[in-house]
Amino acid sequence: MANDAKSPPTDQESMKPLPPASLRRETDERLLGFKTTAEIEPLSGFFGQDRAVNAMEFGTSIRQPGYNLFALGPATASRRLVVSDFLRGKACQEPAPDDWVYVNNFDEPRRPRAIRLPSGRAAQLRDDMNELVGDLAASVPSLFESEEYKTRRRAADEVFETAQEKAFEELQEKANAQNIAIMRTPMGFAFAPTKNGQIVKPEVFNELPEAERKEVQEKIGKLQDELKEVLEIMPLIERDRRKRVRELNAEMAKSVIEISIREVTEHFKDIPAVLDFLKAVARDLVDNVDIFLKQEQGREESMVAPAPLPPRNDPRFRRYLVNVMVSSAPCAGEPGRGAPVILEENPTLANLVGRIEHVAQMGALITDFTLIQPGALHKANGGYLVVDARAVLLQPFTWEALKRALKTGVVKIESAAEQMSLVSTVSLEPDPIPLSVKVVLVGERQLYYTLAEFEPDFPKLFKVQVDFEDEAERSPENLNLFARFTAAVVRDWGLRPADAGAVARLSDEASRLADDNERISLHTSALADLVREADHWAGVAKSDIILREHVERAVTERIYRADRIREKSHEMIARGIVLVDVDGEKVGQINGLSVLGIGDFRFGKPSRITARVRLGAGKVIDIEREVELGGPIHSKGVLILASFLAARYALDEPPSLSASLVFEQSYGGVEGDSASCAELFSLISALSDVPIRQSFAVTGSVNQMGEVQAIGGVNEKIEGFFDICRASGLTGRQGAIIPASNVKHLMLRPDIVAAAEAGLFHVYAIDHVDQGIELLTGRKAGMRGADGHFEAGTINALVEERLLHYARLRRRYGLTASAETIAESRRDE
Amino acid sequence: MTNSPRQAAAIRRVLVGLSSADMPTAMLDLATQLAHAFHAEVAGLFVEEDMLFHLSGYPAAQVLRRGGRPEVLERGRIDAELAAQARAWRRALSACAERSHVSWSFESRRGDALTILRGSARADDVLLIGGTASTITLRARIALAVEALGAARAALVMPERIRRQRGQVVAFSDGEADDRAVDLAARIARAMGESLLILTREHSHDSEARGERARILELASEDPESIAMLLRRLEPRLVVAQSGGPVFADVGTAAALMHAAGAPLLLLRSGV
User: Fold this and answer.
1) For residues A292 and A518, which has the higher predicted lDDT (pLDDT)?
2) Which of B20, B49, B63 is best to mutate for the A interface (most A CBs within 10 A)?
3) Which residues pair with A365 in a beta bridge?
4) Cβ-nearest to B133 among A183, A206, A231
5) Chain A residues with CB inside 8 Å of B68's CB?
6) Alpha-carbon dihedral sign for residues A43, A46, A51, A52
7) Residue B17 · residue B5 · CB < 8 Å
8) What is the C-alpha separation between B239 and A530, in angstroms, rounded?
9) Residue ranges per domain, chain A?
10) Do residues A159 and A241 make contact, with C-beta atoms less than 8 angstroms apart?
């Protein structure tokens, strides 16, 4: 079917391009009310996150189990910073939590005891015990050097020695009297007969009469029994001696130990657990006072005599020390104390629940309660723990350990190796410490939703959702807060002050980041980066102030650093390798617009979309979908446009069209429905046989009613086409067609605004496909009249004519829709 | 007594009499320290006592182990044990001597212990006697030392247990005639880096001139009980005395004082 040359031309005046002012909304620096940020008060905290703040207020105030928080939002929204700032502010108002220490369990050293002390007292107990040990290390040895002790100790030793000596002497005398000698041999004691003090040789003895020999042997037998008794009693005597020495030592030490420990007891008389510990210490000190008299093992043999160890480092006294697990620290910037806020950057299992360290000694790994190290949960106990959700989930065993701690309300030290049964060495089982903490997980939204969906414990343990906004309204109030935020960045990072022009330009960029000229982005970390980069360029320019041009340069340089791929892509079009026309007219061919994202950089790229039509069974083939390069949303868009066609034209006839659509020279896949408008236009062009102006590029999705709907990345898409047009030379006929609902998102580059002002480039906003048809073809789209027919010569009439023609042909060939559909379906399979 | 200390006659050798009796290895340390102090050599003499070999010849001969466990006594076993003990003493002696940088020798002989020791000892020896098969008490060991003294300058008796590794050297001075004990003690104290305490009945100027580190304590009485109490308090590392002097007149008193001191006793031969 030939193009209908008699179709009435469209009234071109009815569609005006958007005025240049609507292509970009810039902040008027004069309205900011300051010259530089040095004049304004830096923002303390954050802005635009009322919902998140409200959630944090609620989550940190409610004191019920399971009301932990999950801060969700994009990473660039400075969630951690916002959360930690909020928590620090709140924690300073709260009382400091109790201290916790581990001490030796004298009854069962494998199970160190945890003791709770009022805030700030742990260090005092530690210091007191260090001092106590130091005092005893000095006073006990001198006590044992006293004349009194020496004399009593000598006496105790002598009692033993003389008892042994006496027993042997008595036996010896008895043996001598019976002419028997007791002898010491390498194997033990033996007996031999004597005569006149001399040993009777065996050969002589054996010649004696049997009765005499028997008598001697009987004597030896009895003496042997007596010696046996003596030898058996020796260890008992030695045991008695040791006992007496111990008792003496204890008696001597008791008074000095009691005096020393009394002072510590006085300091902690209000804490029963500490008093129990001190009683146990006193008992143990008395029982083991000799440790103060022994040299540290191995020190005697040292070639160079080392300096004496401070008592607290001396292994002999470790069991009396105090291992402070947590002790309240002063609140940052405040003279008082407050609840702790712990940010755990590396939430391994050990870093979370603590660990028991070991030291190598004589080839073995040993440990004791002083080697227990606190984890983030210990440190945050009584306060707040902020931790990255993804990091917790990636670390083996950490998530389970965190859940256990929150469920049971205690923090128990456990090692990954033990859980996996990789080691079976004897280790410690410290008392679990009661836990009262608010955990704030920080993570992406998707992670939150995934956990909420698939982790049954998650909703029970993290009941408070702290959802961060991505953007805020671009109101004067928020612009004022934005300026103060800039001032805070300047202050915190020691940057040059920014003038009002720079702040205005930064706010423009914040709108661009938000892809919305009525809003500003709250991705504050990205914005702070921009301020820092602008400061750098101000330095390069030897300026004391960050000016608008420095922000501009920061933006330009940032783009330049990232846009190698964009440049290559556009170069391929300019060199004719990738075919995109920016002038002339073509039937069934249109310029679509797509956005490519590489890292955090996005750019627009025009693509040629073509459509071909023939007689068929009413099916529109999406070639991208057929070869599995099209995503589901793109396919949905194609099905919608097919539905639009079917519902608008040749309503009384069976569908008899077979059409195909393709993104030419696209090899990387297509997703999204933003090209559905362009695809529809190319199809209509193919059906009407009316060419499309190639000076236009189109973006927008279409619904079944032909309404054009908003899409994303509108700025990048327009800029991408503009760059291609400019490379070929701007003609004044070129422009982009976008959904009207996207106009509020326009924050185009200033050079495009300038081109529009010069009439060299245009942006058209449409609400309905008919508006696009008219712009692209220069012909009227046409309305269906009261007679049920489209106005003759219009694009819509031409399309309907073609479809009716296909229907007639179909009937002529005697094809039934159902038979052909079944045949096509089989072919597809 | 004169005001200038007399030079004691040189000690050329420390002869250590070793036997099957289990004595503390600290004896070897002391021997090598003395040798080092006097630039003397240390000679180990291990005696395989004849009487031990006779024991297995008696019918149903037995030994009682420490702890009272009886065991059959066989000749072959005695041979092996003695050989092993000789090797062990030799190793221990060489280690101690090398640590102290003194020359050493070791010899093993069979026969009567006292006879062999007396036969091997020279006039300029210090003799260290651990014990023999028949000396199972301290008194017996002191008696053995006194008997052996006829051949050597001095004999040192070890207690069962040495209480202190460091401490002062205590010398008993009974008067001018016995001043050699103080001379020897002074040299030993100086060489070992210990202080010297002289116990005397008569406080003389000569005693004061033994050196800066010498202290003198006048004995109020020669009553053994009083002296024993004094020794307990002093905690000496070594006691040096004249054999047969008024304090160490008999073996029983000497043993009691050694118990009180808890230290080795070096007895000097009287009249030398």
Assistant:
1) A518
2) B63
3) A360
4) A183
5) 227-229, 231-232
6) negative
7) no
8) 89
9) 33-45+470-562, 49-97+328-468, 128-292, 568-828
10) yes
Q: CB A228 to CB B21 under 8 A?
A: no
Assign a CATH topology to domain A128-292. Answer: Four Helix Bundle (Hemerythrin (Met), subunit A) (1.20.120)
Q: Which of B102, B126, B157 is the last residue of a domain?
A: B157
This model of the complex carries an ipTM of 0.85
Nearest to A31 by CA among A361, A475, A604: A475
A164 in contact with B, Cβ within 8 Å: yes
B246 vs B86, B196, B243, CA distance in Å?
38, 21, 9
In this prediction, residues A806-819 reach a mean pLDDT of 73
The pLDDT-based confidence of A54 (bands split at 50, 70, 90) is very high
Closest CA–CA distance from residue B23 to any residue of chain A (Å): 11
Ramachandran category for residue A601: left, alpha or beta (phi over 0 → left; psi -120 to 50 → alpha): beta
Element (H, E) at A54: helix A50-61
Whether residue A2 lies within 8 A of chain B, CB to CB, comes out as no
Cα-Cα-Cα-Cα dihedral sign, residues A105, A373, A323, A249: positive
Task: Give me the phi and psi of B69, to 5 degrees please.
Answer: -80, 125
Query: What is the spatial distance between Cα A413 and Cα A407, in angstroms, rounded to a whole number?
Result: 15
Selected residue of B50, B56, B58 to mutate for chain A interface (largest A Cβ count, 10 A): B58
A631 vs A678: CA distance, rounded Å: 17
Asked if A44 has any chain B CB less than 8 Å from its own CB, the reply is: no
Crossing angle of helices A147-177/B251-261, nearest 10°? 140
Amino acid at A699: T
A631-679 tens-digit pLDDT: 888 888 888 888 898 889 888 888 888 888 888 888 877 888 899 999 9
| Bridge partners for A192 per DSSP | A181
Q: Which amino acid is at B204?
A: S
Q: Which contacts (CB < 8 Å, 24+ apart) does range A460-463 have?
A: A460/A66, A461/A66, A461/A68, A461/A403, A461/A406, A461/A407, A462/A66, A462/A68, A462/A69, A462/A70, A463/A66, A463/A67, A463/A68
**Does B8 fall in a domain?**
no
Nearest-CB residue to A231 (from B55, B66, B82): B66
% of chain A beyond a pLDDT of 70: 92
pLDDT attached to residue A519:
94
Between strands A113-117 and A99-103, the pairing is antiparallel
Architecture field, domain A33-45+470-562: Orthogonal Bundle (1.10)
Domain A568-828: give its CATH code.
3.30.230.10
Question: Is A236 in a helix, a strand, or coil?
Answer: helix
Residue A441's DSSP bridge partners are A70, A387
Contact B133 A185 (CB under 8 A): yes
Residues 205-234, chain A: which have Cβ within 8 Å of B?
A: 205-206, 213, 217, 224, 227-229, 231-232, 234
